[in-house]
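Internal tracking record. Fields below are filled automatically when a chain is submitted to the structure queue. Please do not edit lines marked as system-generated. If the sequence contains nonstandard residues, flag them in the REMARKS field before resubmitting.
Queue: standard
Priority: normal
Entity type: single polypeptide chain
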Amino acid sequence: MIAASSSQWFKSSYSGGSGTECVECAISQDRARVRDSKDGGTVVITVGHPAWGVFLRALKSDHLAR
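SYSTEM-GENERATED OUTPUT FOLLOWS
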């Protein structure tokens, strides 16, 4: 795990190449953070690792409505 102080933002692999879909994530020891990079990072959603894992499994199994 990455220490909270050294967590780095990275662009989601699901972000589109057109520049209109820019989701960035940062993973730390105890949480995951998500932001819209076009918004200057003013709104950040923070969730614990259990919730992040449920979210990722739902994405991978295509259980989320598009």
